[in-house]
Amino acid sequence: MLIENKTILVDGFDSAIIGYTDDGRIVYSKIKMIEATGLSFIEAVEHLDFNIWNAYIGEFMPIYLNDFDADLELIEQYNA
I need a labelling partner for 27 at 20 to 30 A (CA). Which of 3, 6, 7, 80 fits? Predict the structure, then answer.
C-alpha cells in the first residue's frame, strides 16, 4: 500500500482504478483487480479477499466496488 497525501493506493492495481471520492479515497473495481492478478477467478478472489479487500489500513483506505453483477458474463467465463 502506498500513501500519498492521505490517499492510499494498492500497489500493482492502477489499472483497476475507476474513480475517487470527494475526500480523496480511490475506488477500485473488484473485477478489474481480479483480472490484474493473473490468477484463476477463485484463486484471485481468495487472495484479494484475505489480503486486500478486508484489510483495514486507516481512515483513507480505498473503496472496493463490488461490480460482479455488471460483469456476470466475465465471471461465467472464469468459472467455465
Answer: 80
Amino acid, res. 32: K
Annotate the chain with DSSP letters as a single string. Answer: -EEETTEEE-TT-GGGEEEE-TTS-EEEEHHHHHHHH-S-HHHHHHHHIIIIIT----TT--EEE--TGGGHHHHHHHH-
Q: What residue type is 26 in one-letter code?
A: I
Whether 64 and 16 have beta carbons less than 8 Å apart is answered as no
Among 52, 49, 58, which Cα is nearest to 13's? 52
* Spatial separation of the C-alpha atoms in residues 2 and 76, rounded to whole Å: 33
What single-letter amino acid sits at 70? A
pLDDT one-digit tens code per residue, 6-60: 788 899 999 999 999 888 899 999 999 999 999 988 899 899 999 999 988 888 8
Q: Which amino acid is at 12?
A: G
